[in-house]
Amino acid sequence: MKKTLFNISLEERANGAVETENELVFYCTLDNPEILKSATSFEDHEQWGIEFTSFNGLSVRIRNRKTTKDEKVEFVQTTKVIDKKVEGNLAYSELPIPSTQDGFEQFKMFSEKGMIKRRFEFPIVVNDKQFVFEVDCYFNEDGSYAQWVKIDLELAKEDETLADWKTLLPSGFGNVIDQRNSTPEEKQKVSELYKTIFLSTNKS
User: Using an 8 Å Cβ cutoff, are 148 and 29 in contact?
Assistant: First the structure.
């Protein structure tokens, strides 16, 4: 994999400061696995989480993630808060803080569901601004990549209209579902993907 300045993860800045994350999410089929070889970098994620609704109606998600990249391991715990009362709002506040191996193992003890995936980064430049498509690949039982992937693109609110981002997705992916503009049938498909592919059940 080529190494570039894009290798710094946008999501895992564990500085203990609250940030508002705004992202576009796409679900696609991996039609040509060879495209993954052109990614600038990749890292492995194992994460376990819990979700609940607060007393005032906020959707809260807390996860503890182990990231392995270039033989280096990092642990980060992130709390995300989404105000479901704001219709169509996909921006949410998140608070990442450093964690440890012990913290990760303890969090895993009481988490029923998690994710085990490999993230590939595909950088692009639009209007002299740098962006990164983060492609999350999940695994079949035999260790091969699952047919469906999840692609995130983090960007500032004012950059949403810079381009038709769906058309800029890396080649090699098909059957694109845009989370913000999905049909009822597509929403049902995404729900099935989380149940059958994306989410892992804690067997420990």
Answer: yes
Which residues lie across from 79 on neighbouring strands?
Answer: 62, 95
Nearest CA among 67, 76, 2 for reference residue 40: 2
Output the pTM of the full model: 0.89
Domains and CATH numbers, the chain: 20-201 (2.40.320)
Q: Which residues pair with 136 in a beta bridge?
A: 119, 150
Q: How confident is the model at residue 157 (pLDDT cuts 50, 70, 90)?
A: confident
Q: Which residue has the higher pLDDT, 21 or 13?
A: 21
58: exposed, middle or buried (Cβ count in 10 Å: 0-12, 13-18, 19+): middle
Give every CB contact of residue 17 below 8 A, 6+ residues apart in sequence: 95
